[in-house]
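quick one: adenosine-5'-triphosphate bound model?
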Amino acid sequence: MGDGLSRHSGGSPSDDEIGREQEYVSMLYQRLDDLREQAFRRLTEELRVTGGTLQARSQRDSAVRMYSEQVEQFSAVENGLCFGRLDTDEGERHYIGRIGIFDTDGDYEPLLMDWRAPAARAFYLATAANPQGIRRRRHLRTRQRKVIAVNDEVLDLASASPTAHEELTGEASLLAALNAGRTGRMRDIVETIQAEQDRIIRADLPGVMVVQGGPGTGKTAVALHRAAYLLYTHRRELSSRGVLLVGPNATFLRYISQVLPALAETGVLLRTQADLFPGVNARRTEPATTAAVKGRPVMVEVLTNAVRDRQRVPDEPLEIELPQREILLLDPATVHAARDRARRSGRPHNLARAVFDIEVIHALADQVAERIGADPLGGENLLEEADVAEIRRELGEEPEVRATLDELWPVLTPQRLLADLYASTDRIATAAPMLTADERAALHRTPGGWTPADVPLLDEAAELLGEDDRAATARRERIRALQREYAEGVLEIARGSRSIDVEDEVDGGEILGVTDLLDADRLLERQEEADRLTTAQRAAADRSWAFGHVIVDEAQELSPMAWRLLMRRCPSRSMTIVGDVAQTGALAGTPSWAHALEPYVADRWRLTELTVSYRTPTEIMSVAADVLAEIDPALRPPRAVRSSGFPPVSRDVPEPRLAAELVEVATTEAAGLTDGRLGVIVPAARVDYLGAAVTAALPEAAVGEQPDLENRVVVLTVAEAKGLEFDSVVVVDPDRIVAESPRGRSDLYVALTRATQRLTTLTPTPPPPC
Ligand SMILES: Nc1ncnc2c1ncn2[C@@H]1O[C@H](COP(=O)(O)OP(=O)(O)OP(=O)(O)O)[C@@H](O)[C@H]1O
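yep, here:
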């Protein structure tokens, strides 16, 4: 605080001034159209050409990828292309926008500077106390292609007039963004990034950085802009290794899904924990207590035991009948020795099977050799070493022998191992003697789908088992499916190009679109020949992919087992970890960052903090602060940046009237929204009942798994509301929310801090029995 920043609105710049800016902005849009058209043209030309050498095809494939990405990017930055201008002390002007545009006709001067370029940084950091050579910062507000307002800040200490929010940059534009109605989709903040956020966004790539901040401090926004910044600044490195962003649930990923494309970045892989094991779609649900058991580090030992349990030694000798009715005997001591040998090899289970096979087959071949090569005169065995080797080879191909080996040391997929473990109380008892009877009972279940907490266990199992041929085949199939999706995407972009008539120029009048000449299968074939995939495609299909950078949002929710998985995905330990330990809801979640990170990086991680809440107004923050103090009196809430002017309302309602009262409140709140959204947050146990009441009265309300946030009214649980926000929020039955989980107070804190404007709390009296 206290930079003494002067905020001249510059008076309000005249209409002439807006007119001059309009001219410039229109020129930029014209350039954008030219660039897009050029990329369309090149894309369609590349797609039409067939044949040629392998190298030519491969080059063409790269070109197709490049031009289709360009077309997408130029379309994505349409809104708010240019949003700022810096006037320097030397009298230069720099326009700042979503991408860089250069004067290719002239001397390649930048017409628009990418917000991530070093020279654009002053737009976010310059203050009157430290103007960084900037005389004036101008915010341009546009609607579609029209300039609708201009806000100036003159960075001049002499005329400084301290305000309540001296630390804010571009206050007018910031407050306009914060007070705008929500749409159910997160917007980017590129026009109004604040200084404390900018420092995190542009922090160095290497190392583990934790971003701790209370609700609404912009952690998610910062994480996404950091991804865009890192891809811009370290393009070469990160475009080959990829960036992974992990969020808490599918609804949240949809909520944030438009931010990176609007920043012209499409290469970041967005995933929930449930999607991090390729080929598994973990949508099954289970009690929070079961997920908590599965998240504990002791599960490594449980899985190790479960694998060892599948490496069997029979109690009695086994008979193996060969085709000529010859019977071989495999005694327990031989199997025991083979198992020891295989275990000592240090290889994962599936790869150690080869060692086991060799040992057993050697012993069986010795038996055969003993019989057929015995010297009737009692001398040495008559068979040569080559004969014995041939016997081993034949035995190795005998179905009966293979069946016995499969039984004693089966090749397993992670799914098989885990499904068999969960399905059998005996297997659980053997693998998990260190768990309590209740914990073991929690693991027991019938097969049929996977839960998010299973995903880190599948990944751990995959490490213990090693990859066999089946896993590699499954990966190839996943890659093919993704390639096909990509091929269709490219053709979709090309279809859009039909309005630009490049086709008839090439064909002398015959109007044939690219998509008439090439279908997704043929494009896919071409791609496969060249074996080219986007980084994100390859990474999505490959469990063992090592990302160049990993960003985790709502990271406080991750269990120790989930951290193990993520650390495997990021051996370079270049990570941005974003969260708030006061909001931890998962029982196996993170009580402290040191606790989560020390096993992997000791104390080599850095903590940064965000201290200002942009979402939650002062009125609501003071209600939430009371709950925060109950969680831990040492915790401080973030400072709210603005007041909404709406004091929160708290009502006691007789339990039998709760649903009716909720409907009334929701109807009134929804009617009061012009273009915003209403969130109704309810205890998990009452979501069906209360959700049905609200949807009966307000049919546009969304409720249920993955509700559509673009609906005007959404009814959801706290777990589903994580990371989201609404203009108005109704929190129903806060006591029950607290009672539903040992982390219930944190859940209530999350619920209370989802509103940008208005908060109503409905408390049933007497409370319903839990
Ligand atoms: N500099 C900014 N300019 C404009 N809006 C901002 C800025 N910083 C944050 N916001 C807005 O504030 C709201 C809260 O941001 P965000 O969701 O990133 O916070 P968070 O810290 O992740 O919250 P939570 O912990 O509750 O999930 C969003 O609407 C975001 O767009």
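DSSP finds 32 helices and 22 strands in the chain.
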